[in-house]
Amino acid sequence: MTTIPITALSRSKGVKLECEICGKPACLKCSSCPTYYCSREHFQTDWNGILNLIADDINVLRSKPKLIGSEQERHKRKEELKAIRKEVLELCVETAHKYLIQGNFELAVPGALYGLKLALELHGNEALELVPSYLLLAEANLGLHRLKVAEEFLSLANWSLLKYPKEKAGHRVMSSLQRNFGRLYAAQRRHQESLRAFATDVYHSAREYGPEDVKTAPSYFHMGRVFQSHHKVDQAQAFYDKVLNIYGTWLATERALKEKESSGGAPASESKALASGGSGTLGDVELDEAVEIAGHIVEYRAKKLGVDSPSAKEAKVIFIGLVDKCRELKAQIDGEMEDMR
């Protein structure tokens, strides 16, 4: 895909064209949809990050509205566009999250930005639904070491949440907010504030899923990383032990479920739950995160205790189990997608 220069004749009078990535005046346009950029580099980031998946939808959403037709037809068109926005918003958030898990922070930014724009169009600038996009943008900018920008997005998320009762925001959102504040404080070397934020993250995650649930494991992991950065080995190991224990228990449960299914004892809905990411299960993005976490613990233990130490070997077994599970789930999802074609 390429860009074309924006000429004076192609500009609508009084319309300011801004870069999709940075907001600066645009001088280039995507050749396949109405998106605009200040540089070829920003176009490439946008295309690789999310635009290649949503270009057709952007064409539909940004096309000039037709004024002809009955009121019923216009209402139907409005509802169709609303449904497209919701679908694209979900895809943008999911894609941005996937890049964050992979550590590809630059490519996470476009999806998060489009997600924010769509959430604003759907819900307005005071809505609670803006918070997930703010948090994605904060996390991406933390990964890019743009601490001031990350802090601004976290402040926007926090301000949005303050307008609503905590129970309406939900423990999942509060967990993500505190986790990102913890990362910000850690990067700023505000270690005590970082610990408090991660402890609050653990609290909200445990309230949402349960203290022993597989989805709570990342919260414990981040606590361990703070202690690791302080060279407090015993405390770091204690949290890493907790993480591995949760993952090990989950893997054992999944193996038992698979054996039960193969013997005809498990209901089909239960065996398919792995792909849905429901309670007690992990979706593909969450499994990627689990693999990253376990890999970090393997590396840490190998350096501290030796590659052949029982602790390092135990961590590696769990890491391999998670990698295998990740491959299995992705093959299952690919198979289901193929069946739908």
Automatic annotation (TrEMBL):
<dbReference type="InterPro" id="IPR011990">
    <property type="entry name" value="TPR-like_helical_dom_sf"/>
</dbReference>
<dbReference type="Pfam" id="PF13424">
    <property type="entry name" value="TPR_12"/>
</dbReference>
<dbReference type="InterPro" id="IPR053248">
    <property type="entry name" value="Zinc_finger_MYND_domain"/>
</dbReference>
<protein>
    <recommendedName>
        <fullName>MYND-type domain-containing protein</fullName>
    </recommendedName>
</protein>
